[in-house]
Amino acid sequence: MIRTNSIVFKFSVQMTVILAILLSILVLSNIYSLEVVRSNALTSSRNTLAIYQANIHNNFNNFSKDLIEVFDNNIDAAVNLAYIDESSRNFKVQQLKNNLLAKMSNDYSSDGMFIRLSGELVLEQFSSRIQSQDKLALVDFLNMHEFSSDPAGESDEWKVLQIQGDYYLFKYITYSQVSFGTLVKADTLLSMVDRGSNDQNRYVLSNTEGIILSANNIVLKEADTTLGSLTNEYQRNFLIISEPIGELGQITNMVAKGGLFSGLKLIQWSIALLAVLSAIVVPLVLRFLTKDVLKPILELVKAAKVVEQGQLEYHVPQGAPYSLEFMKLFHALESMVSEIKDLKIQSYEEQIEISRAEIKYLHMQIRPHFFLNAISTITSLTYQNKNEEIRRLIHCLSEHLRYMFKGGLVEVSMEEEIKHTENY
Fold first, then answer.
1. What is the pTM of this model?
2. Measured on CA atoms in the order 380, 385, 386, 388, is the torsion positive or negative?
């Protein structure tokens, strides 16, 4: 049965409370640190995405400016091709191709520009970023696709088109059955965003419907066609942050939690180690408390009860591994018991002396009457001539006086005491 008023119980409760508070502080501190790191990571990621948003927006603006410039400079020549002779027509076509090539020669150009003339003639120019097989697929697409003018103005927007599994963004202007257009591959757009960066995070481009257009540093599975499915699969191990892009949809940054919180693993292991050490230290402390504190206290309590019962013999335990402080207490108890014993003996002796004085006082009161009576008896016997009785009475009286005047003798034999009684 646990005694709630015992030192061990109180000390163990206090130790448990203190350890619980310390562990709680460590856990809360770790949680706070994790939240701070997570918050800083989210802020850093959003700042990075804001820069990438601006880069993408600038790229789209540059692509649009190039398209408008090509359109303004070449629309008249492209429309009039249908009304000139064959030789002049070939010259104009070559001139249009050169104009497209000039626009595609800078480092920040799109992946391709094209002019679809009347009569299904398509002039195209692609950047070196486009592979040969992709160029063939694009040429086939441009020859087959109808770039009709849109009175609602939707031709000013960037449109996402899928060609042989790859996503491209197209923007075109159609006038008098002549279409001027520019295109950029989603993979190229994403690679242009973090050009020259050492960022190892994962980035994903998706359109307004959530369809994944491009991703880097990540292998997409067949089921990972939308941003929602990708989020469900990776949100356990990644922080996923998305920011909108007006011309496209949105850009998403996936930050690995393992690399993000790797610096806090030491703190987590420290907390676990402290918990294990606490489970070991508390029983050891309680054992120390029982052996070095509680046991000598119980020994002192036991000795006090023995003294309380009247036993005035106590000696310090020999060979007991008690601490210096408790040994001092044991010696103090031994000295106190010895002093109590001496005081009690002294008190008994004083009481005996008082009793003796009282007895002597009574004797002094009794003896004169006794002696007077004895003398009066002897005197009366002389008138009766009882000499033998007088002689015996005087002998007994002398023996009685001799016994009474025996100095400081305290103890006498039983025989002397009986003889004294007979003489009396």
1. 0.59
2. positive
